[in-house]
Design brief:
heteropentamer; A mainly alpha (301); B alpha/beta (260); C alpha/beta (351); D mainly alpha (320); E alpha/beta (220); B: Rossmann fold; six-stranded mixed beta sheet; four-stranded antiparallel beta sheet; 24% strand; D: mainly alpha; 13 helices; globular; binds adenosine-5'-triphosphate; binds magnesium ion
């Protein structure tokens, strides 16, 4: 019984990380309709900014994590946003009118560039991520443990999800983002500056990646230049499962994938974990071809 | 089925809802084998929806669609096309990456007797058939005066040419019934006259029935033998052009005072 | 051009300088480079300078095959050193074998590697040996009978070591109460650990690499798992303690050598390595150092870089005083040597 | 006369492959290896081009098909005990390849089914999932060597076999898409609704594309296994699938000659960059980005298309 | 108000328009006629910045528009109901119309204009919550015109506004165009199919305007 409870906690905390990364994927996808492959790598960069910055920031603020944490986070968001916007400007913008697959390959190129570049710049060996989040024990019985780190991650994920949803559904810029996603020419005819909207989208997406990187580093304190690859893939799957482009969908997808993986590992065959997780994903998609919360594009014939 | 022998298509008590909206209800339509029938009605009356029900794009929620006496409700669009119903689309849907020639070639696929193995191995029958395909495409393009743009990408043509290409493409499926959704839209006066000539020619030459949606009254009144009028998904009138032109409810709902 | 005419002898090295195993590849490369520099500084071998040609495998087996073909047929290297992982070594070994170029792998522990042919050698112990060492340590020294295994299914090293450990441990009368798995690249192991905890083992065997191992131990401690953890040579790295921190109390791993071994060859190596790279060498660097050293030694003894002669000289290696122990190449071209078991913390015990 | 041009080209290509293979031992093995990889990548890329480029079904599972073909082929030839150079190889290798192709094609059938309901990125993730499932299953099958891999596959693949299969693949796929029958693939890609209205059974076309593409991927897998003689599941991860997709898109979707050249270039490029060691992949990835930005329709756009070449041939040959 | 001089546009290798010149005075309704493929749509798209001109200039109220991005041109006061409608398929009718008012701030005025659009096209009010993509062809056309009106431009570009519209509405539309022109002082450039010239008076004068004539002839 307590094992089951513990597994649920494990699943949700793993899922919240997927959800957090998935939000960034979905954000960019929602506006640009293409998979921003380097998102997982931006996430890695975010973690590394934290790795290099935190030890310098912590002494500056007198060792207080409560102050150093947010500053590090902010700095990392800033760096990643700059990176995201630059990538968009240099690599994606020239290809905007082209078929999405062209941009996809460019994205793959950028992703490889960040991974191999990361190995060159940061070195390939794993680095131990500094402690930025308080790791207090909330529940501690011999058989059931809950720490504060996953709780903070979950709270952040849910909070960001609500914030994003608010931005997209309720603000003018959000409406502009939706318009741009449906038809860029038409949006520009409404007076929307597509470049600004897309840059903003990348700022949002990259900030999310940075936040995820910092939180991930805190939860799993070993970071390396390839750390974004698998969580990125899982997060992308989560986003698709939830209905890519849909913000609550990404969060739900993340939690579902986290729970599925945890339960398959805990109760079925761990060696088949990825296979079973993919199997379930495929099954769900067969019944709901545009993801759990995704709406099928309505097309009038 | 109790369908009249002379009718190629019959809609019986056909209806469809989208969520709460009834787009078409209890529609009865009969089209004879050589009819040139017009369908008019205000915007959103349900005309295009009728086409979509006939061709299997939408499933009617009520009633049946009889083609040649056989209920085709539930068949896939390609099966219905295979039975002999060709169509054009209100929002032109040419294959954007294909040339005019290739667009039409697609329609001939269903008439091919060869398939995967013949085309990959290039057996003798393959070459024979490919020659026939080419000949019939060229023949069609000549009739419609599109030979000069044969190798251009269909979607880079001017609007009017695209519309005509769509008609040719539908015709190439060798239909017994041809459904045309606003073929004159975007054409200028000269082209419209030419279009009317072509539609008549098609009907004679290919000996088929045509159902035509059109908002241009010169075209509709000029070539249709009979006209159906829809409003809010309901048939409000049916008859020859003169009767429709002077029908008060049609004038009120659709034509307006100064009818064309 | 080949190494015959001019004044150098070319040795090929293939290692994973980039990709998922880059951290191991860079370690082996450092070890190998150190030998080359030492050798050249002391006048080279057979009066010639050694030139180490290094190719990157990107951590992919198919690349390993490509680069070894290149090293042998394009660059004309006289011997080949590599790789860390058996998967890539296995891809390259047949090429060395069919070209008659001797190859020494520093750390591929899969028994199949040297079975490829008589040109293929290794300087590390094999998975079955190591598995047995771990089993004996758990069973005899720690006196624990109920073990759990958490292995990396994507990694042939981990799968192999887990297999041989279980085999030996059961023979001794121990019991494997639960076997769990993860995949390279995972960072969350709580699901596995929770399931392991439910099976109530006395020790948890983690035959994987240090990065995952450190996280596994850390997360295990967070889940209130108090029993010891134990791993193999894949744990050896300064990073283990850095990442795992205090959680590493009460963990053990089998290894090829210990940096605190007083033997001069070890101390000399550790010192030089630290001078050059400003870091403590891990086991893989040590093995790579030994592999190239044995090769140098064999070239000297053979008096030639001719394939068959060199092969025979390597095969004749006996009681070589290596960093990772005293190495004798046995009839199966494997190194027969001892293993050490280290406990995390300052004091290490030897088995 | 000219109507049989493609067949003549095919036979000539096979004959040339044979003649070249007689002099295979004269070629430096490293170059030979690159050439063989080029051939295998051409098969993979042209077959994926049928699925992705021509039929417009975004598939990320090609490495999975390749794995099935490779492992099946390996089992066949090791069971039958073929030896390199032995006369039995002439029968056993084709048998292994074809069986590998068939097993992959069956999987293609299975993967094709979701494509009937799924579109775009949803389909991509599903095919990626299938590929990974195949890989994980192999990883757990002991008789295939599991994670440790399959060793001791006889090295039967040589220049002749690879380039004969390349010729056949290109022949089959370009004949297919250039025939009237094959226009159905393009129609499905461009507009499914319109295609259906023109009587195209879109379901069938998608499945045919998947099955055919998977078959050739399986054959390529077999050639690969019998060349490297050691395979393990990691060689067939989704990263490999992505590499093949990159070749297709760099070459220009639905442009067979372009894809062939891209497959060759993208095989050679990382080799050519070897001297710069650690910087190699950084430069490689940058070149990818630069290629896409400067040649967004693929390296060759629409200019170099087999369709137009063959079209010209046919026009000369056929009086209309 | 608008002056176009020797405008040339290419699509890849295709020379779509070769030297179109036209000028429109403030408060006019100008009509552009032309054969199929003459380049009318291309001209409008170039004015609103969707297509880049390869040569020539476009000035609007002494501001150079040539090759500015569309959103700046809209902000300067040029609105367009484009050929092909370009509806936001997944936004509702209301959201589509609100997008038109993206740059505007005054809520009351926006509401006013919304009511005005609904008064011309009552059908749109009936469909207010329906996604734009599922509207019938004619309904979408109404939405495209309505959305352009919502930008409250000083120069309105209408590309075949009556395309796909039922006869009873066609008349209304042209009446409303004149009303808008008269009462709101909006200058209008209208592309219509030949033979459908329903606007009298001022408009037909413009049709004789030198520039438009050129456009009409299109140098075919
Ligand atoms: N998929 C759909 N979902 C919801 N409503 C729909 C859908 N398709 C059509 N409708 C609605 O059904 C009604 C009939 O549409 P239809 O396209 O048949 O009209 P139409 O008579 O062809 O009009 P037009 O002359 O403008 O083309 C319209 O009000 C439209 O909004
Ligand atoms: N996207 C495009 N790619 C290539 N050529 C194009 C494109 N759009 C238009 N053209 C070509 O440019 C020329 C002018 O087209 P345009 O659409 O401006 O004409 P139009 O006068 O509006 O015609 P219509 O009456 O059919 O609307 C035509 O020859 C057309 O084929
Ligand atoms: Mg309609
Ligand atoms: Mg136009």
């Amino acid at each position: 019984m307590s094992e089951l409870l513990q597994q649920i906690i494990n699943g949700i905390s793993l899922g919240s990380i997927y959800a957090l990364i998935a939000l960034g994927y979905t954000m960019v996808y929602g506006v640009l309709r293409f998979i921003n492959f380097p998102h997982g790598d931006a996430f890695m960069v975010g973690a590394f900014v934290g790795y290099y910055a935190a030890p310098r920031i912590v002494p500056l603020v007198g060792g207080s994590l409560l102050i150093a944490g947010p500053i590090t986070l902010l700095l990392s968001m800033l760096v990643c946003s700059a990176l995201g916007v630059t990538i968009e400007k240099l690599a994606y913008r020239p290809l905007r009118p082209r078929p999405k697959l062209t941009i996809l390959i460019t994205a793959i190129g950028i992703s490889l560039f960040l991974e191999f570049g990361g190995q060159l710049v940061f070195g390939p060996d794993p680095k131990s991520f500094p402690t930025l989040l308080p790791s207090a024990v909330i529940i501690n019985t011999p058989n059931l443990v809950l720490r504060s780190t996953p709780v903070i991650v979950i709270a952040t994920t849910v909070g960001l999800m609500l914030l994003l949803r608010f931005i997209v559904m309720k603000t003018k810029l959000g409406t502009a983002m939706r318009a741009v996603s449906y038809n860029q020419s038409a949006a520009s005819l409404m007076g929307i500056n597509i470049d600004t909207v897309i840059s903003f989208t990348f700022v949002l997406g990259s900030s999310l990646a940075a936040a995820a990187g910092i939180l991930y580093g805190s939860l799993y304190p070993s970071i390396n230049p390839l750390m974004g690859v698998f969580p990125g893939l899982k997060a992308f799957i989560s986003a698709v499962l939830g209905g890519i482009g849909n913000i609550p969908g990404a969060a739900i997808g993340g939690f579902i994938i986290g729970l599925i993986e945890t339960f398959v590992t805990g109760y079925l065959s761990p060696t088949y974990r990825d296979a079973i997780a993919f199997g379930i994903l495929i099954l769900i998609l067969l019944f709901k071809p545009s993801g759990i919360l995704g709406r099928a594009e309505s097309e009038k014939v | 089925m109790n369908s009249a022998p002379g009718n190629i298509l019959e809609l019986k008590a056909c209806g469809i809802n989208f969520g709460g909206l009834t787009a078409v209800s209890a529609l009865e339509v009969a089209i004879g084998r050589r009819d040139l029938l017009g369908m008019i009605g205000p915007n959103g009356a349900g005309k295009t929806t009728v086409f979509n029900m006939i061709t299997g794009v939408y499933q009617p929620t009520k009633g049946s669609v009889l083609f040649d006496g056989r209920n085709i409700v539930g068949l896939k669009p390609y099966q219905i096309a295979g039975l002999g119903i060709g169509r054009t689309f209100q929002n032109i849907r040419l294959f954007p990456s294909l040339t005019v020639y290739e667009n039409i070639q697609v329609s001939l696929v269903k008439t091919l007797r060869h398939g995967f193995s013949h085309s990959t191995l290039q057996l003798p029958r393959f070459h024979e058939e490919e020659r026939a395909v080419r000949a019939s495409i060229v023949e069609l393009l000549e009739i419609f005066n599109l030979t000069h743009v044969m190798n251009e990408r269909a979607t880079s043509l001017p609007y009017g040419d695209q519309r005509r290409t769509e008609i040719v493409r539908a015709l190439a499926t060798k239909p017994q019934l041809l459904l045309l959704d606003e073929p004159a839209a975007g054409m200028n006066a000269t082209e419209k006259v030419e279009l009317m000539r072509l539609i008549r020619l098609v009907k004679e030459r290919f000996d088929i029935a045509i159902l035509l949606i059109e908002h241009d009254m010169k075209v509709v009144m000029g070539i249709c033998e009979r006209i159906i009028v829809l409003d809010y998904g309901i048939k409000i009138a049916e008859g020859p052009p003169e009767a429709i032109r002077n029908n008060l409810s049609v004038i009120e709902a659709y034509l307006g005072e100064q009818a064309a | 051009g080949g190494g015959g005419g001019d004044n150098t002898i070319q040795i090929g090295e293939y290692s994973s300088l980039t990709g998922t195993a880059a951290t191991f590849g860079t370690s082996t490369h450092k070890g190998a480079t150190l030998v080359m520099q030492e050798t050249n500084a002391s006048g080279g071998v057979l009066g010639k300078q050694i030139k180490l040609l290094t190719e990157d495998t990107q951590s992919k087996p198919e690349e390993a095959a490509t680069v070894v073909t290149k090293l042998i047929t394009r660059d004309g290297v006289k011997a080949v050193v590599g790789e860390v992982a058996s998967g890539r070594t296995l891809a390259a070994a047949p090429i060395c074998q069919s070209n008659g170029v001797p190859m020494i792998t520093p750390s591929s522990t899969n028994p199949k590697v040297t079975q490829v042919g008589d040109y293929i050698f290794r300087v590390c112990f094999t998975d079955d040996f190591q598995g047995d060492v771990i089993a004996r340590f758990v069973h005899n020294s720690l006196n624990l009978k109920r073990a759990a295994i958490l292995k990396d299914v994507k990694n042939e090293y981990s799968v192999g070591l887990a297999h041989y450990f279980a085999q030996s441990f059961k023979q001794m009368g121990g019991e494997v109460v639960v076997e769990q798995a993860y995949s390279e690249g995972d960072n969350d192991f709580k699901a596995q650990l929770t399931a392991i905890k439910a099976a109530d083992p006395e020790i948890i065997i983690v035959p994987g690499y240090y990065n995952e191992a450190a996280l596994i131990v850390k997360q295990g401690r967070e889940l209130n798992i108090k029993v010891p953890f134990m791993g193999g040579d894949g744990w050896d790295s300064a990073k283990l303690l850095e990442i795992g921190g205090a959680s590493m109390e009460g963990t053990y791993y089998a290894n090829h050598y210990s940096t605190s071994d007083p033997r001069p060859v070890v101390q000399n190596f550790v010192k030089k390595f630290h001078e050059k790279y400003n870091e403590t060498p891990d086991a893989i660097a040590a093995l790579s150092y030994d592999a190239v050293s044995i090769l140098m030694d064999a070239i000297r003894r053979a008096g030639s870089t001719d394939g068959p002669k060199l092969r025979d000289a390597i095969a004749a290696t006996k009681d070589f005083d290596g960093v990772s122990g005293t190495i004798t190449i046995d009839n199966n071209r494997n190194a027969s040597k001892s293993a050490v078991v280290l406990a995390s913390g300052p004091d290490d015990r030897q088995e | 006369m000219g109507v049989h041009a493609t067949k003549v080209v095919l036979l000539a290509a096979i004959a040339i492959s044979f003649i070249v293979s007689l002099f295979q031992s004269q070629i430096n093995p490293y170059f030979l290896q690159i050439i063989i990889y080029i051939g295998i990548n051409i098969i993979l890329a042209t077959s994926l081009n049928l699925i992705n480029g021509y039929a417009g079904q975004f598939s990320l599972g090609h490495a999975g098909f390749m794995a099935l073909g490779g492992y099946t082929g390996a089992v066949v030839s090791t069971t039958l005990g073929a030896t390199p150079g032995g006369s039995s190889a002439v029968i056993i290798l084709p048998l292994a390849l074809v069986l590998g192709g068939i097993v992959a094609a069956l999987a293609g059938l299975l993967v094709g089914i979701p494509s009937l309901r799924l579109r775009g990125d949803y389909l991509a993730i599903t095919t990626l999932g299938f590929g990974e499932i195949i890989r994980v299953v192999i990883q757990n099958l002991d008789f295939l060597g599991g994670a440790r891999g399959f060793t001791g596959i006889p090295k039967l693949t040589n220049f002749f076999w690879v380039f004969s299969v390349v010729s056949i693949t290109v022949f089959v796929i370009s004949n297919l898409v250039n025939s009237s029958y094959g226009k159905g693939f393009l129609a499905v890609r461009d507009d499914e609704i319109a295609a259906q209205a023109m009587g195209i059974n879109t379901t069938k076309y998608k499945v045919v594309a998947f099955v055919t593409g998977a078959f050739f991927a399986g054959v390529a897998g077999g050639l690969y296994a019998h060349f490297v003689s050691y395979i393990n599941p990691q060689q067939f991860s989704f990263i490999r699938s992505i590499e093949i997709v990159v070749m297709v898109i760099v070459g220009g979707m639905g442009n067979t000659p372009g894809v062939i050249i891209a497959a060759a270039l993208l095989t050679i490029l990382p080799e050519a960059l070897r001297p710069i060691a650690e910087y190699r992949m950084v430069i490689y990835s940058l070149s990818l980005v630069i290629i896409m930005i400067t040649r967004p329709q693929g390296l060759f756009g629409r200019e170099l298309s087999l369709r137009s070449l063959l079209g010209r041939l046919r026009k000369q040959a056929m009086p209309v | 108000m608008l002056t176009v001089e020797r405008l040339e546009v290419r699509y890849g290798g295709i020379h779509a328009i070769k030297g179109v010149s036209l000028s429109i005075a403030r408060g006019q309704i100008a009509t552009m006629l032309g054969a199929n493929g003459a380049g009318k749509t291309t001209t409008l798209r170039t004015i609103s910045g969707l297509v880049k001109a390869s040569r020539g200039t476009i000035r609007f109220e002494d501001v150079e528009l040539t090759n500015r991005p569309p959103h700046e041109i809209v902000a300067l006061g040029v609105g367009q109901a484009p050929e092909g409608r370009m509806i936001f398929a997944n936004l509702t009718v209301k959201e589509n119309l609100e997008m038109g008012a993206y740059l505007r701030k005054n809520r009351a005025e926006i509401q006013n204009d919304l009511d005005f659009v609904f008064s011309i096209f009552p059908r749109l009010r009936e469909r207010i919550k329906q996604p734009g993509g599922t509207l019938s062809g004619g309904e979408q056309q109404m939405l495209a015109i309505g959305r352009a009106l919502m930008t409250r431009p000083r120069l309105l570009l209408l590309d075949e506004p009556s395309l796909g519209i039922a006869p009873i509405l066609v008349k209304t539309i042209f009446e409303k165009i004149q009303e808008i022109n008269r009462e709101l002082g909006m200058t209008i450039l209208l592309v219509v199919e030949t033979g459908e010239l329903m606007i009298e008076g001022k408009a037909s004068e413009i049709a004789k305007n030198e520039g438009v004539r050129k456009a009409y002839l299109g140098e075919t």
